Q: What sequence folds into this?
């Protein structure tokens, strides 16, 4: 049996600076493109921990050229020219989870899309579940990303990140 098949679907990754946070997003984007399917990611952590920075790296990694603005006031920013199409949510200002029904939330999460959700806890009970949960916290002057796989696809992605991080530290 492949030893990696039994590895737990949880990993902690140290991100020394802003560039490394963006780079983690780019790595995920490359994996998404290589596997040719969408994924739903919950991005958690306090204000200023790097959720939008990570999203910028991922969206640019999918091929978007130009600005990636925080969807704090619009709730969602679509990137429908990408393959797969990506939707960047920030639910910080969501008044009530039921508002997601009025937004037609199910259409976004129907599968085959990349859905990045900042502040998913604000949509609890209505927001569809995530393949991957990424929690950012402070570590010295940098950040730590705690990544959990919550589906078969999410677990495969965590293992992929595990071998990537090992490859980097082996250098
Ligand atoms: N690994 C890191 N180490 C130090 N600072 C970081 C790191 N990643 C991002 N930052 C900085 O932290 C801030 C994060 O802002 P932002 O991505 O908007 O956070 P959030 O969306 O979580 O509120 C930015 O100023 C960015 O430069
Ligand atoms: Mg943000």
A:
């Amino acid at each position: 049996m492949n030893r990696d098949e039994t590895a737990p679907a949880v990993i902690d990754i140290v991100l020394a600076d802003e560039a490394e946070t963006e780079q983690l997003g780019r790595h995920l984007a490359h994996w998404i493109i290589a596997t040719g399917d969408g994924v739903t990611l919950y991005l958690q952590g306090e204000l200023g921990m790097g959720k939008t920075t990570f999203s910028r790296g991922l969206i640019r990694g999918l091929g978007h050229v130009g600005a990636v603005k925080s969807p704090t006031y619009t709730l969602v920013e679509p990137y429908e020219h990408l393959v797969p199409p990506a939707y960047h949510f920030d639910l910080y200002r969501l008044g009530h989870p039921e508002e997601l029904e009025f937004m037609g939330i199910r259409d976004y999460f129907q599968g085959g899309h990349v859905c990045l959700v900042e502040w998913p806890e604000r949509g609890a009970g209505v927001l569809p579940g995530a393949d991957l949960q990424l929690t950012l916290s402070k570590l010295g002057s940098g950040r730590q990303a705690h990544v959990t796989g919550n589906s078969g696809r999410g677990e495969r992605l965590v293992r992929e990140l595990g071998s990537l991080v090992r490859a980097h530290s082996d250098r």
In short: DSSP finds five helices and seven strands in the chain.
